[in-house]
Amino acid sequence: MGFLGSVCRCSGALLAIPIAVIVAVMVETPTVTKLEGGPTFQAPADEPLPDATEASKEGPAAPRMGSGSMFDRIAFVYDSTNKWMSLGLDQHWRSTLVKDCLQLQPEDKVLDLATGTADVSILVGQQLRTLGAATDAVLGVDPSSEMLRRGVSKVESSGLDQVVRLVKGDAQDLTSVQGIDAAGTVADPSAGAATGSIDKISMSFGIRNVPDRAKALAEMRRVMRKKDSSRVCILELSLPSGETFLSKVARGFITHVVPLIGWVATMGSGGDEYDYLERSILRFPKPMEFAAELGRAGLPVETITSFAYGAVNLYMAKPVL
């Protein structure tokens, strides 16, 4: 099938979603689940979780699906496809994470993991600047050079280069990072986040792609200051499990429309990457299961806020003091 034919298929799939359903998602009141008496810190299970990334169909030399190199390949359409796939609501979800979940204070040091093109880092930086924050109050970390290159340009255009610092790094080991500029030049490794140096941690649509989630959660706990105002806010996609009509529509959108949008947006070059997006959502734990993972890592979840009829969940956790 040619590219134009695929565009027609995409258009047809979008039109098949009733306008009333799209409106319903936009005016939906999020569901907040409070977890009382969350689990305390336990040693990780002996059996490690399976690698969240996967081999490329192009062979072992190609970037693994879910890796920073994979995101290098789709960085040029990442922001625009996010808007199409989320019906324009992705910025609202990120804004809710920053304004309602993080509960920023002027002296906060914030770590934004999987910062990508820096949308959340910029939102955090804007609010902290309003509160009178100090220089380098936000550290945005991502494994993709191409995503970061675009993020650095956005940070500079927002006038936040004194507040937000973007670096290339791995959520599984934050002891060493590499600076990067708007030209994509990566600096030599330097010290990353020190133990007990971070007040707030955010992560949007990224934990699903970390090869070893247990290592990433352990790093979050390591770098976080152990105080009552500290918190971790993780926004992630999930396959809706409800049996209502709108839950079924949201489920169908994720499994059928999202990969097609990605294929069309990349003019056919990113089909495998957006097929992986669907598979990664299907494999990700259900909300209560992921909350249990956070609890076992010493980050008990206090609330889960669900958007889009369960397709998007915002986890707010605090460290065990």
3D structure, described in words:
- This protein is 41% helix and 18% strand.
- The longest helix is centred in the last third of the chain and has 21 residues, at 245-265.
- 44% of the residues are buried.
- It starts with a helix and ends with a strand.
- Residues 1-19 have low confidence and may be disordered.
- It has helices at residues 3-15, 19-27, 68-74, 78-85, 90-102, 119-131, 145-157, 213-223, 245-265, 271-283, 287-296, and strands at 31-34, 110-113, 138-142, 164-170, 173-180, 186-191, 200-204, 231-237, 301-307, 312-317.
- It has a ten-stranded mixed beta sheet with strand order 1-9-10-8-7-2-3-4-5-6, sandwiched between helices.
- Helix 6 (119-131) links the parallel strand 2 and strand 3 (138-142).
- It is α/β, with parallel strands linked by helices and 321 residues long.
- It contains eleven helices and ten strands.
- It has a single domain, classed as Vaccinia Virus protein VP39 (Rossmann fold, 3-Layer(aba) Sandwich), CATH 3.40.50.150.
